[in-house]
Write a structure and sequence with these properties.
Layout: H1 2-16, H2 20-48, H3 54-59, H4 65-75, H5 81-93, H6 107-142, H7 147-161, H8 164-178, H9 192-195, H10 205-211, H11 215-252, H12 255-262, H13 267-304, H14 310-319, H15 323-351
């Protein structure tokens, strides 16, 4: 009877305790919340110290002193900085990111229109990075210290080090202006708006065109997407290839790889069948970091290719000292970074349960 009671109590206690995955997710979410709160506070404080006067931007360059005073009072600029920060944080909790001084629209509404276009561009680039960078890394590891390895390492080093704006201009000049293979700029052929109007559901043009069966706009969008996606993908391809190579070479030096070679498995089979799975964890972690970096790095690419994403919106916000827009963009990028890392943590745990203890 005593044993039965003890077992039942242990079972109830186990049901109340979160699972191993639940504990990890709870710890990661707590850490993510602290990071986002820190980023929000720092961004707001730094934005308030930037050169320029928000009141002038809001009221206009020819505003009278009375109009400037009214703009200051409306924006709360006369309040102490802690009070301004408190008002900003309480607004964020209610989903209010403020009003853009440049577009005169709520920042949240602006971001709802701009962010999907950037995710379309950066997401396409990350898919290219995985499809191209991963096989390159495996090939370099398979032929380590040979000419193929040297070629892959040299090529990936060039992709990582070349300035993104130079690559964008070079590809635009060669593949668009000289050869005419791809459009110079834009998201899709705007003349299609009159013949094949697009129904908006997600604000991601390719997805909306696909789910509504709007093939002319879908093909035009994919055609316009090739060049900017390749330019944005250059850095991630180089980083993924190098990281995959290093992780696979390290894994091929472990005891299990020696045993597999002794058992007669071929080198490529050992890499793909036994070494790739434990080596993919660091690559996934790297992808989350590269995704956030690429989202920020796409500002110049979007400006060069006239892509209507968050990069173009950020460039306009910086030029006009639009503090609410700058703070909103920073918050969104921080959230993307944190959520990306969280997704990678979950993926790593699913692939390798040993990472729950880290």
């Amino acid at each position: 009877m005593t044993t039965t009671t003890t077992v039942a109590a242990a079972a109830r206690s186990a049901r109340r305790r979160p699972s191993g995955l639940g504990k990890v997710l709870l710890r990661r979410l707590t850490h993510a919340a602290v990071v986002v709160a820190g980023v929000v506070c720092l961004t707001f404080i730094i934005a308030r110290q930037l050169p320029g006067d928000e009141a002038v931007t809001a009221a206009g360059a020819r505003a009278t002193p009375e109009q400037l005073a009214a703009a200051r009072a409306r924006l709360g600029l006369d309040d102490p900085l802690p009070v301004q920060l408190w008002h900003y944080l309480t607004g964020l909790v209610q989903g209010d990111l403020g009003t853009s001084l440049h577009t005169r629209q709520p920042v949240l509404e602006d971001l709802k229109r701009a962010l999907p276009a950037s995710l379309e561009l950066v997401g396409s680039a990350m898919i290219l990075a995985v499809l191209i960078g991963l096989p390159l890394g495996v090939t370099a590891a398979r032929f380590a210290k040979r000419r193929t390895d040297l070629a892959v390492r040299t090529g990936s080093m060039l992709l990582v080090s070349v300035p993104v704006f130079w690559l964008a201009l070079a590809m635009q000049l060669l593949l668009s202006t000289r050869l005419g293979w791809f459009p110079v700029a834009g998201e899709y052929d705007r003349s299609l708006d009159s013949t094949s109007p697009l129904t908006i559901y997600t604000n991601i043009t390719a997805v909306d065109a696909l789910i509504t069966g709007n093939w002319p706009i879908l093909f035009s969008t994919l055609h316009h997407l090739v060049l900017p996606a390749l330019v944005v993908a250059a850095y991630p391809i180089g980083v993924v290839a190098q990281m995959t190579r290093a992780a696979l070479i390290e894994e091929s030096q472990q005891d299990h790889a020696r045993m597999e070679r002794a058992l007669g498995f071929r080198p490529l089979e050992i890499l793909l069948r036994f070494s790739l799975r434990p080596a993919i964890g660091p690559v996934l972690t790297l992808l989350a970091l590269v995704f956030a970096y690429t989202l920020v790095n796409s500002v110049l690419v979007e400006a060069i290719f006239n892509w209507p994403g968050i990069g173009t919106y950020t460039a306009d916000a910086i030029r006009s000292v639009d503090t609410p827009a700058i703070a909103g963009v920073t918050l969104v990028i921080a959230l993307v970074y944190v959520l990306g890392n969280l997704a990678v943590d979950v993926a790593q745990i699913a692939i390798d349960p040993r990472t729950r203890k880290s």
